[in-house]
Amino acid sequence: MMKEEARLYDQMLVRDSDGKLVSSPAYSPEHGPVTSGNTYEQTLIWQLYEDTIKAAEILGTDEELVATWKANQADLKGPIEVGDSGQIKEWYTETTFNHNASGSTLGEGYNHRHMSHLLGLFPGDLITEDNAEWFAAAKVSMQNRTDASTGWGMAQRINSWARLGEGNKAYELIKNLFSNGIYANLFDYHEPQYFQIDGNFGYTSGVTEMLLQSNAGYINFLPAVPDDWAAGSVSGLVTQGNFEVGMNWSDKVLRSATIKSNKGGTVVVQAENIALAKITDNNGGTVTFEKVEGHGNDRISIATTEGGTYTISDIPS
What we know:
Oligomer: single chain
């Protein structure tokens, strides 16, 4: 399915006036203008190519198509551009962000529950802390959208603030969801439909994202733990790469963790001073690892075997 979708976009993409590949006409959900390419569509196409390339490489197939997809992905307009107000542009024709929507098609996003141009932050993999400029711009755009929302829009905000490392902000929205956003029957609130469930499921996802993230190519422990969850434990969380994680923490600092490698392979993990921790295998033997360059003592790489469990302990504060 992914292969055929990628092949469809291979045929649909056109060159804009700058010679870049765009989806045209493009529309950002619920408000315009209609343009040649926009952040919403270009981000989705980037993610489609990214995931399809990875899948093909894992399967060892379609080498010629992978080469085409890599070339097209590299030649996409954007997908992310930062505007003069420090925001993620929703449309590439944007300059500054206009908070007054009246008479301006480029201002209609203010206070809107839709966050279409931020799909690269969540659930996508494009905007991460490893790109400081985009990361900071995503925070500006989140503030421009404001916290006012219902249902799935509230859940997306919880997850997005978690991806931005803002645990207290995400927790504030969780409390808002429970006090104002869920009916007695536990469906989430969103007029005029009184039967939505996506906000509830999205909340569950948001809690997980606050505790553990793995979308950026490494497992990030406690990326957005709020002050009210300063101490705790969790088990059974499964990351990308099929690693099952349990951990406990206090004072918002990771104290120990276990990683079960369900299919083997290399796992990269991040936590403060994790390179100074003790790491042992199933038999209590010492496990060697490598520090990831450019991240001090906070990110390491461990070669794992299928079925092996790795315990991280004695992490200095």
